[in-house]
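We examine the record.
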Amino acid sequence: MIPTHLAIIMDGNGRWATEKGLHRWEGHHKGAQVAENVVRWSSNRKIKYLTLFSFSTENWKRPKEEINAIFSILAEYMKNRTDELIENNVSVKFIGDLEALDENTRKVCLEAERKTSHANGMTLNIALNYGGRAEIMKAAKEWNGIGKFEDHLYTVGQPDPDLLIRTGGEMRISNFMLWQLAYTELYFTKVLWPDFSEEDFDKALSDFSHRKRKFGGIN
């Protein structure tokens, strides 16, 4: 059983770099390479939706140098890999409040969305300046009791995640997709994100395949 929608909290870049005596931004650079691999692995396994937690609304508390590095790495990836995403029939969608981003990062993100919008293979959601509570508040203001609440979430039209993977050893969801994760299966691993391998990826999928999902009912 392969999840239709896989969500990942990519945790451990900074710790990985610190352990190796490197700058934290070098951990994020290595982590971006792993994220690129995961996109490919997911597409190859016919996962329809992949959501990666890239930058949270709380991450603004980090040093400015680290924040700038994260956005720079993301912009570089989008510029250099958009054509490859199109070739692999992957559409990109950014979920979160892009208005708070610098103009260049926001422009690159919107351009990647536009260029990949016709792809109908895997959808890659990149959670950028994203917070679960902020998303629910935004949706509540827009909803006003009319229609479906879910139609006002960033993930409108998408199924909720079947599986959430969090690397780095922490065992919490950290304000990520609070509405959507109501019945999601959770998988935690101590492996730091830059060390997350295809073997680790398949181990998580294998674990999920043996779960019995009841959604509040009985088998």
Observations:
- The chain has a mean pLDDT of 95.
- The CA atoms of residues 59 and 146 lie 33 Å apart.
